Amino acid sequence: PQVWVMGGPDPNRYVDTTDVLERKVKALLSHVSQLPDPDGLEDRMRGWGRMIAAAGGLPEGRTAEAFRVIDTA
Fold it and tell me: Is 16 helix (H, G, I), strand (E, B) or coil?
């Protein structure tokens, strides 16, 4: 009954990813041919996640992903 769109304008849902960020980074690193700078990936992901978490009102030091959730029901 919902569509979750990532990377679009005007997010209305923030999901805390702090506890799974390490697993997410490892999964992304498995795509070796798609990463021109794998050494900097974890720092980029943490910085990006912290910026999004702050925008979503999460406590300092947390990471998050932002979505625009559209009700389709």
Answer: strand
Specify the pTM. 0.87
Cα-based distances in Å from 45 to 3, 25, 55, 72, 73: 24, 7, 15, 31, 33
Beta bridge partners of 71: 2
From 57, 29, 39, select the one nearest 66 (Cα to Cα): 57
pLDDT single digits (tens) 15-66: 999 999 999 999 999 998 888 888 999 999 999 999 999 999 999 999 999 9
Q: Using CA atoms, how far apart are residues 69 and 4, in angstroms rounded to an integer?
A: 5
